[in-house]
Design brief:
With about 575 residues, the chain is an alpha/beta fold. It folds into four domains: about 5-155, no CATH class; about 160-230, no CATH class; about 235-325, 2-Layer Sandwich (Beta-Lactamase); about 335-550 and about 560-580, 3-Layer(aba) Sandwich (Rossmann fold), CATH 3.40.50.300. About 40% of the residues lie in helices and about 15% in strands. It has helices at about 5, 25-45, 55-70, 80-95, 115-120, 130-145, 145-155, 160-180, 185, 190-210, 215-230, 235-240, 275-285, 335-340, 345-355, 370-380, 425-430, 445-455, 470-485, 490-500, 565-570, 575-580, and strands at about 245-250, 255-260, 265, 300, 310, 320-325, 360-365, 390-395, 405-410, 435-440, 465, 505-510, 515-530, 530-545, 550-555. The strands form two sheets. It has a nine-stranded mixed beta sheet with strand order 9-8-10-11-7-12-13-14-15, sandwiched between helices. Strand 14 and strand 15 (about 550-555) form a beta hairpin. Helix 10 (about 190-210) crosses helix 11, helix 17 (about 425-430) packs parallel to helix 18 (about 445-455) and helix 18 crosses helix 20 (about 490-500). It is elongated, with a radius of gyration of 32 Å.
Amino acid sequence: MSDTADKPQVIPFSRQGETPKEWDDRPAYLAPFRERLQPVVLNALASEDLSSWNRRDLSVKIGEIVAEQLEGRQHGLNLVDQRNLVTDMMSWLTLCVPELSGQPADGAPKGGGSPQQARSGEAPESKKPETTDQKAEAPAKQEAAGPEVQYVQKASKPTQTPTRAKAEEAKQRVEPIVFERMDVSAASRLSREEMLDQVTEIVQEILDEQQIRLNMQEQRELVDLLLDDMLGLGPLEPLLADEAVTDIMVNGPYQIYVERGGKLELTDVRFRDNAHVMNIAQRIVSAVGRRIDEKMPLVDARLADGSRVNIIIPPLAIDGGSISIRKFAKQSITLDVMARQKNISEAMATVLKIASRSQLNILISGGTGSGKTTLLNALSQLIDIGERIVTIEDAAELQLQQPHVVRLETRPANLEGDGEINMRDLVKNALRMRPDRIILGEVRGSEAVDMLQAMNTGHEGSLGTIHANRPREALTRLENMIGMAGINLPAKAVRTQIASALDLIVQVSRMRDGVRRVTNVTEVVGMEGDIITTQDLFSFEFEGEDHDGNLFGTFKSSGLRPAFTAKASYFGLERSLLEAI
């Protein structure tokens, strides 16, 4: 080996203005650094007998080499990135030098060998090629597909199920020891990045002590699993990260369903046991100041990203704790997007935009998971930025974009049964807050009385949702809710109040092909005798099903002149409304 080869090379690190935050995949981000450091590490260790080194000493040595090469350069790596780079180099060197792992790796020199042999591709002395042809062929193969190439290919592959399974197996042994060595209560106050640094170091120590052999990918998977249990929602984290998943349904520890594209699928995700489910449930509710136990076995809550959560536990849930998560949509859905997706027609989108801008009182009706909240968010985007909006929900999930929004959320009773604040209390309080619009996440009880009174006393443009299968059924449910408030009024008086308060009912439905569609846009016209009169402005007419199971039909306009044309005219929107109808 020449003097030049023995001396570590000085390598330039050129990032071309990019920063680590612009990379989503850590292995891909570190790849340029690995490629430049590999020959330097081999040169620095060329004269060493690595078979006598333990992993800790080797890690320290590689850490010194990495630090020396990075010193004084604008590399953009934080401490966690540098630690991951050292770990990467350790894993790569294990492929090159089998004495470190105890077995040869694909693409690495078989039967041991020095770093010089690994770098040059020479066959080790302990295992001679059997024939002259093989001997001549071996260096060529090593040169064509050396350890560096093999390592990059392995690192770039997505995590496979066997990798996760091996990490899960190791987690059972490692996790109790990690908790013994960490102050979990203090660690929970750290950021995920700081925790990653600490847990990675502890896990590497434990793996060495317990002689658990994991490759780099499996170690990363193991650390992620531990962090998910410490800071996140454990096995649910991959499902929360999957943007195709809209709903997550946990039925006990061993049965977890998700909804993708409107269809339910059984996943292979599992909890350890019922205690593991309860631990995650407690973490969810405690984050929003609520509790779940035998005295309060069901609760509505939300995640940090706004996803809505319902939890019910034994003894009410017989087969173990049940967690239902309606995921927060990261991409805002507008009426225009819904029209492109064929959830509504272009004409429907125009009429709904005009209705919202004209300050109509709109009630969105539909079944569970039909898209009521999504449509409510889309309608709310048409509210003027100068208006004061008060939202009232059991678990806050609305995503209003206006600057002047006050968000209110109900509160359950405490351990002594006191301190409960329900929807009706919040609606009454909202009326004293000088709102321009009141938005109820869901009308489900006696708060309907106060909501209708608010709509009738100058708070035009208010919005709400209700569970019902048809527009006429939504009116009947409202009437029943007023009766739940204990107010004894004649049926005609109740219906008169409903008819004067509501302007529009929008019916949404999730059909059997998984697509959510607006099936009716119904206008509340007034009263005829004791009956509330309505007229359909639009309706969806089912026509058939294609070979892929997708339903198709037509969004038809009734052609009737809307009763709210005068209101639209006040806002200068009459012509656009009549053209759309």
